[in-house]
Amino acid sequence: MRADEQALVDRLPSLALEEDKYKVRDALENYRPEDLADAIQRSDLEIGLAILRKLDAETAAYVLVELPEETSRSIIAELPDTTVAHYLDILPMDDALGLRDSLSPERFEALLHVIPDQDAQEIRRLLSYPEDSAGQFMTEDFVEVAPTDTMSDVLDLIRNTNDEEFETVNYIYVLSEDRHLLGLLTLKRVIRAQPNSLTRDVMVEDVITVPATMPEEEVARTLARYGFSALPVLDARGRMLGIVTADDAQQILEEAQTEDVLMLGAVTGDAENYLSLSIVELIKRRLPWLLILFVAEFFTGSVLRYYLGSKANGNEDDSLALIAKLQLFVPLLIGAGGNAGSQVTTTITRALALGDVRIKDWFRVIRREFSVAIIIGVALGALGMARAGLPVIGWSQPIYFSLVIGLSLPCIIVWATCVGSVLPMAAKRLGIDPAVMSAPFISTFVDATGLIIFFEIAHRVMSAYGKPF
Q1: Distant-in-sequence contacts of 164-168, Cβ < 8 A, 24+ apart
Q2: What's the confidence (pLDDT) of residue 311?
Q3: Are 271 and 255 in contact (CB under 8 A)?
Q4: CATH code reported for the domain at 143-264
Q5: Are 95 and 66 in contact (CB under 8 A)?
Q6: What pTM was estimated for this model as a whole?
Q7: Per-position pLDDT tens, the chain of length 469
């Protein structure tokens, strides 16, 4: 944390005790809502609540939006309905809708009857679209003009309208009478055009749009791909409903990336600030996957008991000696397989998330990864053979031990790589988040199956040399 951030955190307790709210506002007027939210979530709940009550309503509303969900839920629970309703009225509708997760459904519905009817109707319209779709996080506050308007008309509209009426004025949308999108004007193009030029003569007709039902992640990636600051959202009939802005898209991408990273580490839950989560919440996010992986490890134990038990035959002393030596190589082999599988899973999951790879590319992916795995497996297999057999750099083991290692490593790595590339794509095909096939999951699966490969190869190689196994 920077020194100025820590200074703000240290200053909040004394400001919370200040009775004159105007002194508090003066002291905090140079801080942005994002910075205030970060300091509040690092402070006690009572301090944050006291600070929020002393801020002006507009600043408090925007600070509340920036707070982690767990923190904002705790604060909103202590605020009266009239105050929360005022915040909903102040905020842009997409931000107001974001506060829904911090309220119970009953209280949120009750608040819709308190705020102005126009705002309540807009929120209900947004709620009518599918969850996590473009329709739910778009804003209806955009600049719209008719095709017969002049550039002077457009500039007058922007100049004479309150700032809060428009989310952005960088793009001006030309709509027909039935609200179909005809084209787009940039503010630069409007300023440079002749004042009496008509919008239909200056506008760009080739406009990239998104449907209201498109998933929010896909919308955000489309916006990021083309580098726009906003994208128009259309209904099924091609009528313009609103716009999705770059700041909202950036937040969606950050949350999606955070959730994917957490999932790859076998941690469930939304992208919430770590410090805002309680001990109970942290346990709920981690324990389910740990239980699943713990049970999955039973399979690994079963494989070991099978091969190190019933497979030990012949002369007992010789068998046990061979088995003991084989166990020395188990961490090396399953570690290499688990690491190889985790690398591929992480790579493919990221490629799927970014749209670099699609389900139809499955054969190309497997073919590429198989080639890579063969080369890596042979290289590690040769190194493993040298480590096991050479007296100078290795353990001076007999040739059959070296062969077991040299053959097992490529087979396990190829298997782990194929599994690690197929499972995320299969999950995507089934409509499951590919990140569910996390690195710990792949490692656990490869541990058990890799042991089977290892012991089967060991059994055949040693049988060929007449060794009991």
Answers
A1: 165/141, 166/141, 166/142, 167/92, 167/139, 167/141, 167/142, 167/230, 167/243, 167/245, 168/142, 168/229, 168/230, 168/243, 168/245
A2: 47
A3: yes
A4: 3.10.580.10
A5: no
A6: 0.61
A7: 454 677 888 899 999 998 899 999 999 988 999 899 988 988 888 999 999 999 998 899 989 988 887 788 888 989 898 888 888 888 877 778 778 878 888 898 888 888 888 888 888 888 888 888 988 889 888 999 999 999 999 999 999 888 778 888 899 999 999 999 999 999 999 999 999 999 999 999 989 999 999 998 889 888 888 888 899 999 988 899 999 988 888 878 777 776 666 666 655 666 565 555 666 765 676 667 656 655 655 565 566 566 655 544 444 445 556 666 677 778 778 888 888 888 888 788 878 877 778 888 888 888 888 999 899 988 988 888 887 777 655 567 788 888 888 999 899 989 988 888 888 888 888 887 777 666 667 777 887 888 889 888 988 888 888 776 6
Q: How far apart are CA 331 and CA 463, in angstroms?
A: 23
As a whole number of Å, the CA-based R_g of the chain is 31
Question: How many angstroms separate the CA atoms of 406 and 426, rounded?
Answer: 31
CB atoms within 10 A of CB 278: 10
First-residue to last-residue Cα distance in the chain: 59
The set of residues, in sequence order, having a beta carbon less than 8 Å from that of 198 and lying 6+ positions away, is 147, 148, 149, 150
Domain 3-132 grouped into CATH 1.25.60.10: yes
Quote the distance between the C-alpha of residue 295 and its chain's center. Answer: 27
Sorted by where each begins, the domain ranges of the chain are 3-132, 143-264, 278-464
Are 293 and 266 within 8 A, CB to CB? yes
With beta carbons less than 8 A apart as the criterion, state whether 156 and 170 touch: no
Do residues 263 and 256 lie in contact, with contact meaning Cβ atoms separated by under 8 Å? no
In terms of Cα–Cα distance, which of 161, 175, 236 is closest to 207? Answer: 175
Cβ-Cβ contacts under 8 Å for 357 (sequence gap 6 or more): 348, 351, 365, 425
Q: How far is CA 107 from CA 119, 126, 141, 329, in A?
A: 16, 18, 26, 61
Can you read off the two tokens belonging to residue 3? 């020194």
Joined together, the tokens standing for residue 292 give 């699943």
Residue 413 CA to residue 453 CA, distance in Å, equals: 11
Pairing of strands 181-186, 171-175: antiparallel
Give residue 351's identity as a one-letter amino acid code.
Answer: A
Which residue, 56, 68, 64, 76, is CA-closest to 33? 64
> Which CATH number is 278-464 given?
1.10.357.20
